[in-house]
Amino acid sequence: MTFPDLTIYDTGHPICQVISRALLQGSGGRIVPVSEGLQDGPAAVYGILRGCDRIIDECEWIGRDFYHVDHGYVRRGHYHGYYRISRNGLQWSGAVGDYPADRWRSLGVDLQPWRRTGRTVVVCPIARAIGAFYGIDPHLWLAAVTRELARHTDRPVVVKPKDSEEDLSTVLKDAWCLVAYNSNAAVEAVIQGVPVIVLGPSAAEPVARHRLCDVEHPIYPDREPWLHALAYQQWTLTEIRRGECWDALERFRT
């Protein structure tokens, strides 16, 4: 499937240029500099920096479809890993349909059993760029979250910034649950068997709690249908160049 009406916005960043060319090859659309502002047709942007946030805002204001590209949910990594493509949001909406299991199985990821023990509550702060995009002060958000958690649990709170040297897997070893706004850490935690609370638009919404008052009452849903769907929201550069992402986005349109 081609997507000739697609307008791809190039910021000039080296990674953006690689992704833009892959999108161009797979869609048959066109590339324009992001500095030229919103053009005709559905928009595709990589990330939210260097003017891409403005393109997203304008699409939302006028009700135009946009496709946001960023790091994948699983097996992500520049050039040789996966990139997520989300329609009309920074992440997949989480709508679980009748997705086959093939893409999830091909990732070779070990799904850990749900953990029903643990001592700490891990909190992932909002990144500065995400805070700016959503109009949230990350420091005020973290203070509000930790205050509210203290009202509902005596468990120690461990703050895990995105850029900290400690690996998330290490931090989660003694975790009762993880709290995030829309960090991909929520997806990682669910795969590792740690219950999550997500407070913003997140791909993990279908398998998460959404209120801090539920911190002592985690849920342990069936993750298989969600994971099958999740794997159809991310693509390698090779798959993007072949246009496979557009086929799937249209086939499973939600």
Arithmetic mean pLDDT: 95
Q: What is the β-strand count?
A: 10
- N-to-C order of helices and strands: EHEEHEEHEHHEHEHEHEHH
Count structural domains.
2
State the shape.
Answer: globular
Poorly predicted regions: none
Major beta sheet summary: 6 strands, mixed
Strand order of the largest sheet: 2-1-3-4-5-10
* Share of residues in strands: 15-25%
Level of helix content?
25-40%
Rg, Cα atoms, Å = 19 Å
How many distinct helices?
A: 10
Structural class estimated from helices and strands: alpha/beta
Oligomer: single chain
Intertermini distance: 18 Å
What does this structure look like?
The longest helix has 15 residues. The model has no long low-confidence stretch (mean pLDDT 95). Helix content is 33%, strand content 16%. It is of the alpha/beta class and 254 residues long. The strands form two sheets. A six-stranded mixed beta sheet has the order 2-1-3-4-5-10, with helices on both faces. Strands 7-6-8-9 form a four-stranded parallel beta sheet, sandwiched between helices. Strand 8, helix 7 and strand 9 form a beta-alpha-beta unit. The chain folds into two domains: 120 residues, no CATH class; 103 residues, Rossmann fold, CATH 3.40.50.
Quick summary:
The protein has helices spanning 14-27, 52-62, 102-107, 128-134, 138-152, 168-171, 185-191, 224-230, 237-241, 244-251; strands at residues 7-10, 30-33, 43-46, 66-71, 83-87, 120-123, 157-159, 175-180, 196-198, 234-235.
